[in-house]
Design a protein that fits this description.
Rossmann fold, about 40% helix, about 20% strand, 2 domains
Length: about 450
Amino acid sequence: MKVSVVIALILSVTCPFLASGEEIKPGILRTPDARFENLLGYDFDPHYIEVGEYRVHYLDEGPADGEIILLLHGEPTWSYLYRKVIPVLTEAGFRSIVPDLIGFGKSDKPVSMDTHTYEFHVNAMATLVRELGLTNITFFGQDWGGLIGLRVVAENESLFARVVISNTYLPIGTEGTGVSPGFMEWKRMNQGMINRGDIPTGQMLVSQTGDPSIEAAYDAPFPDPNYKAGALIMPQRVPVTPDDPAVKAQEEAWEVYYQWEKPFLTAFSDGDHILGHLFKKFQEDVPGAAGQAHTTIIGAGHFLQEQKGEELAQVIVKFIVENPMDSQIAEKTTNESKVSFLDLTDEQVKIFQELDIEGPVLMLNMLRFKKDGGREKYREYSRHVDPLLTKAGGKLVSRLSARATLVGEEEWDEILVVEYPSRKAFLNMVQSDEYKVPKQIRNEALEDSRLISMQAPKR
């Protein structure tokens, strides 16, 4: 037998990762690209960025100028988990950034479990966000993607516009904050996997979803157990005691969310029996969660992206559309039709009829109330007009209230975003005999008003 063959055999036994993969640097493995070939539904171009000494993989799908959605996976998955979500977001005109956490997917994999701390992963994802120059981000996270991402958002809040979470939490190591008997049982089972030196990643996804066709995709990042340090240890990194080193940063993050007024949505699933009940604290304690269309996705377990990916994507799209950023509204004032709406004249009706808008239309109502009871009078108008709005097929999408909302160079007391199925539906309503009384009440309530019309985003 040739010496080279003998050496190869010795290496394959003593250092199995050298036989099946590639050690890029001491203690850092990189999964061969061939492992990811021909994965059903995963036809996305890879992108890479250096974060410290690690190469991190991410997907960048959708229009380059689209509003950004950051999607983070958890344990033991990777960006493959979002293959059903991304196309819906792209079709709606959004740009999806979907990283693989270090140690997962196509990202580099430290072989030492000691590397995989909570802080390490938070810092890595925060670096990725900053290095890619992402701003006005809508964040979505599930499982560890939520634990990590919620910290990234809290520590970089100026970069984020909205938050959506599912089947996740921000635990601080005390009873009722994510430390459930079900999770502790999973943690115990995971310790047995660590003791044995392996975790059945693909089988875990199959058992949770009932879909054997996905097993190979979730095994693909891990040619052998040497690659699984992150997948093995991360369940043990969840803070379950008050003295956990991550708790201080967790508590600081919660202080941010207790004051968080930007839109915040929970979209948990009904079949997650370990984390599925943890949405309540977010809904009750995050100011930005008030009044949002929180939902429970039916017929899905912990990995709802697998079982209800398209439905989840639609929830995200609807949430963004219903919660436009102030800057988006201000930009529209310079690009779209803008007329006074204390009284629609024949000329103003003509403007709306000539607008180059097909299909659903958004109407932004900029309101300045009369100082003596104007706001209360407008609420009376709303009670009168709501049945007419429903009859016209319209709906209130968003209400932005503040002491002074600046749009362009003008200050307004309130901005309402209302969607109509068409321009014609809007015009038919405001020109109907039924609208005469509400119109009079409206004029009595307002000192001034502007109406801005624009094409509704694709759903």
